[in-house]
Design goal:
- The complex is a heterodimer.
- By secondary structure, chain A is an all-beta fold.
- Chain A has no helices and eleven strands.
- Chain A has strands spanning 4-7, 10-13, 19-25, 31-37, 43-50, 56-57, 68-72, 75-80, 89-98, 101-104, 108-112.
- In chain A, the strands form two sheets. In chain A, strands 2, 4, 5, 6, 9, 10 and 11 form a seven-stranded mixed sheet that branches. Chain A has a four-stranded antiparallel sheet with strand order 1-3-8-7, with no helix packed on it.
- The N and C termini of chain A lie far apart (36 Å).
- Chain B is mainly β.
- Chain B has strands spanning 3-6, 10-14, 19-21, 23-26, 31-38, 44-50, 56-58, 64-68, 73-78, 87-95, 103-104, 108-113.
- In chain B, a hairpin with a 4-residue loop joins strand 8 and strand 9.
- Classes of the chains: A mainly beta, B mainly beta.
- The interface between A and B is medium-sized, with 23 and 19 residues.
Chain lengths: 113, 114
């Protein structure tokens, strides 16, 4: 299994600001994924990030709100832009470790006031 | 739209009790099925998976799950739970269409009383 770290682990932010979440993997991976887990709800895929190409966003998520970078095979960032309290959530990155199997990072707990 | 339903949001059991967590999905085609577990303070991790073959699959820590195609179900079972099984359990489905999207259920919080 991979070792995944996320920074920050948690943050409290003011509405209207932006936060960039970093995801670092200890091995090279092709596919990285960003999820959101809102309180009491399931994980929802935000986007799939392939190194060297634009991220693919799921329905309901747009690049202007959640820009993603994937500069190399071990690193990705997700920015939550112009935040509102509705963006309060846990944000998780994951990598594919087998056919459709995923290994998850520890998550970033975001609170927007 | 494709969805995954977990019937129980919270389950409380005593040690040695049997466990069954329900999971149903809505998708008519071939699927890959997963159960993930998140122990307190730990990462979400894979518990078991089903791709094809024997519909009864065994995972780590004595867990098993049965795929019943006619019922669109993939229920998780353990004959005798332990206090250390206290965790949140997520059922997940990946429609076998060649895409990457995995759909997760809302999760079931299991608390096992010692």
């Amino acid at each position: 299994s991979a070792v995944i770290s996320q920074k920050p682990s948690r943050d409290i932010c003011q509405r209207g600001t932006s936060l960039t979440i970093q995801c670092q993997v200890d091995s090279q991976v092709t596919m990285m994924f960003w999820y959101r887990q809102q309180p009491g709800q399931s994980l929802t895929l935000i986007a799939t990030a392939n190194q060297g190409s634009e991220a693919t966003y799921e329905s309901g998520f747009v690049i202007d709100k959640f820009p993603i970078s994937r500069p190399n095979l071990t690193f990705s960032t997700l920015t939550v832009s112009n935040m509102s309290p509705e963006d309060s959530s846990i944000y998780l990155c994951s990598v594919e470790t087998g056919p459709h199997e995923q290994f998850f990072g520890p998550g970033t707990r975001l609170t927007v006031l | 739209a494709q969805s995954v339903s977990q019937h129980n949001h919270h389950v409380i059991l005593s040690e040695a009790a049997s466990l069954e967590l329900g999971c149903n999905y809505s998708y008519g085609g071939t699927v890959n099925l997963f159960w993930y577990v998140q122990y307190p303070g730990q990462h979400l991790q894979l518990l078991l998976k089903y791709f094809s073959g024997d519909p009864l699959v065994k995972g780590i820590k004595g867990f098993e799950a049965e795929f019943i195609k006619s019922k669109f179900s993939f229920n998780l079972r353990k004959p005798s739970v332990q206090w250390s099984d206290t965790a949140e359990y997520f059922c997940a489905v990946n429609p076998n269409t060649g895409g990457f999207k995995t759909i997760f259920g809302a999760g079931t919080r299991l608390f096992v009383k010692a």
